[in-house]
Amino acid sequence: MQILLFKSAAIAACLMAASAINAATSEFELENELSLPGQIGTAELSRITDDIRQGRAEVALDKINALIAGGMKTGPAYEIQGLALGKLGRIEESLAAFDIAKRLQPTSPSVFTNAGLVHWALGQTGAARDNFEAALLRDPRDRRANQYMGKIAESEGRTEDAIRHYETGISGTQERYLGVKPDLALLHIETQNVDRALELMTPWADAPDAPDVVLEVMARGEVANGNREAGIALLDRLVARGTSSDALVRRARFHLTDGEMTEAEDLLQRALIAFPKNAAVFFEYGNLMGALGRYDEAVGHYEAGLEHDPENKALLKGASLANYRMESLDEALTYANRLVEAGKPDAADHLWRGIVFEKAGGSEAAITDYRAAVALDPTNWTALNNLAYLLTDDEPQEAVRYAQSALNLAPQAAHQAVEDTLGLAQYRAGNIEAAQSIYESLHAKAPKAALPAYRLGVILISAGESSRGRDLLEKSLALGLSGSQAEDARTRMQQGG
């Protein structure tokens, strides 16, 4: 039996919204609490750093260049020159200044951290990592180096390392220092340490002016802790502000879950007006239309979102699925192809395209995608099951292996469907006793299901139990067996088995 397994649209939207919260720095930014060398040297250097902090980088650069030209060729002077150049976007010159500063003050962590920030802003993760690691060798508790090492670890999927660096980075900071605390809290929620996540947000819990990101994280934490109403109350505070697209989307999702379709649509319309280019809003609106069975409207919203974000996988999957529901398989396949071609495809992308190919009659193409899904994720039981089902005719022994693996991995709720695949594979492989055992069990569990009765009837006739086999075929027809299987059952009965 082929299984259609769609990841929850709500989960996909959660993932999209979560990525919007993660505040990865995209440009070089000098923080007010910048860690400069312990010995700046002169009051004049301190005033120059103040110029940089207050946005007067060009003025600062003129001043520091004059001091260096006048003979102040010290590590702190070149570090400040590098900071001013970095703020002005003169990246190569900035890095050159930091290199001089490193040679002049090799024990200073701040110069390595600052150089790392410039590399990070350029997307040069390797060079950034090298500099942050060098800073941590000099000061293992360097706040910024730890926090950016946390960002690197998070981007690489090393959650525990990210948490360790973030926690070290925030230790010693003021209670109401925000920084990466929202990112850290989300990771704690992901690893089921919700109490720590909420503890991180505690300083802002009752503040009327709590940042949006704090309320968003707290709402996630409360829901994860089973406090649904508390989470909704936090979202309602954000909705009242009208400043967070994520809050509007998430609150609409709760309305949708509660069957409050009008309220959900009202919020999403409001979100579209306030955030007309936000992909997550179009995605959620499409999901709402899909839940209402208005698939053509769902496609319209997904397509509108794709105009702003053409390679958004959630939108491409949504558009493909909505077309699939309308039996518009050519369009469903077009979006499925775009899904696989949008960046690096994962197992779920190949699985979905395989499902569409199979529905459209392209069994060989479906097999190729199912194999790709299994190669990327050997634990994907749905891909294993669907692959086994399509291999039962030409490669039954291989089908048995895949179906058995799927059964070992599948949740209990899916066992009967996977057992059907395994039973069919065993039958086609000539393992009649094994197949009969499986279908005897399936028929006993679901005596009013047509398919197990039909399969067992066919097997019994093959095993020489024609009378009972024909009775089961007749029963399967009475239970509503349809299509080619119903025709086969009638033919077998007319032929006496």
TrEMBL record:
Listed SMART domains: TPR
In the record for this protein, the TPR repeats are positioned at: 109-142, 245-278, 279-312, 347-380
Entry keyword Transport? no
Q: Where would one find the signal peptide in this protein?
A: 1-23
Which PROSITE patterns does the record match to this protein?
Answer: TPR (PS50005)
Q: Which Pfam families match?
A: TPR_16 (PF13432)
Q: Which domain of life is it from?
A: Bacteria
Q: Does the keyword Signal apply?
A: yes
Tell me which stretches of the chain form a coiled coil: none
Q: Which UniProt keywords apply?
A: Repeat, Signal, TPR repeat
Question: What is the protein's given name?
Answer: Uncharacterized protein
Organism for this UniProt entry: Litoreibacter roseus
Tell me the lineage of the source organism: Bacteria, Pseudomonadati, Pseudomonadota, Alphaproteobacteria, Rhodobacterales
